[in-house]
């Protein structure tokens, strides 16, 4: 099973995500209070910005081109495909 290190800023917490779970599920399993609600890609509570790394989606979430350019991802829909650096900072 492929495991990747996910570093979460600004708290600078690192957790492990496999390719068989969402990034959100991996964070919650690690005991991190990651914002979330619906877990099906509808509420956008779990959005954060990807500063580096590769993810994939089973179902592409609705993101504007601007949001994609800024690196916004839906962590409840995203699977880690490499080590990641994510940020919950909104600016
Ligand atoms: S938890 Fe609702 S969109 Fe991810």
From TrEMBL:
This is Ferredoxin. Its cofactor is [2Fe-2S] cluster. Belongs to the 2Fe2S plant-type ferredoxin family. One of its GO terms (molecular function) is metal ion binding. Keywords: 2Fe-2S, Electron transport, Iron, Iron-sulfur, Metal-binding, Transport. Residues 4-91 form the 2Fe-2S ferredoxin-type domain. InterPro entries: 2Fe-2S_ferredoxin-like_sf, 2Fe-2S_ferredoxin-type, 2Fe2S_fd_BS, Beta-grasp_dom_sf.
